[in-house]
Amino acid sequence: MFLVGGGILTHGIHRLAVLIKHAALQIARLPGIGSLLAALTPALLNGIAGIIAGGVALVLVNGITDLYRRFRS
User: Fold this and answer.
1) What gap in Å lies between CA 52 and CA 4, rounded to an integer?
2) Is 29 helix (H, G, I), strand (E, B) or coil?
3) What is the pLDDT of residues 18-55, one digit of tens each?
4) How many other CB atoms are found less than 10 A from the CB of residue 37?
5) CB atoms < 10 A from the CB of 48, how many?
6) For residues 6 and 47, what is the distance between their CA atoms, to the nearest angstrom?
7) 41 near 25, Cβ under 8 Å?
8) CA atoms of 38 and 16, how far apart (whole Å)
9) Which of 39, 51, 40 is nearest to 3 (CA)?
């Protein structure tokens, strides 16, 4: 889920998508294992973006829920 969500977010932000593609191209230049790492890099970076976005969403939902409970009582 984090990979899919992160991929959707990073593809929606053009500069971030270009940065991820550029990182994969630079890693591909490594001798030997570079091509394998280049294939894994976008998935890893999309996963990190998904985890960060999930954390932000969790903080926002918990904050709004806490405010709602305070005003309700």
Assistant:
1) 13
2) coil
3) 999 999 999 999 999 999 999 999 999 999 999 999 99
4) 14
5) 14
6) 6
7) no
8) 16
9) 51
68: exposed, middle or buried (C-beta count within 10 Å: 0-12, 13-18, 19+)?
Answer: exposed
Instruction: Name residue, tokens 């593609």.
Output: 21
Record the pTM. 0.83
> Quick check: 27 and 38 in contact, CB under 8 A?
yes
23: Cβ–Cβ under 8 A, 6 or more apart, which residues? Answer: 41, 45
How far apart are the C-alpha atoms of 25 and 34, rounded to whole Å? 9
d(CA 2, CA 52): 9
Task: Give the model confidence (pLDDT) of 55-71 as tens digits.
Answer: 999 999 999 999 999 99
**Is the CB of residue 63 less than 8 Å from the CB of residue 55?**
no
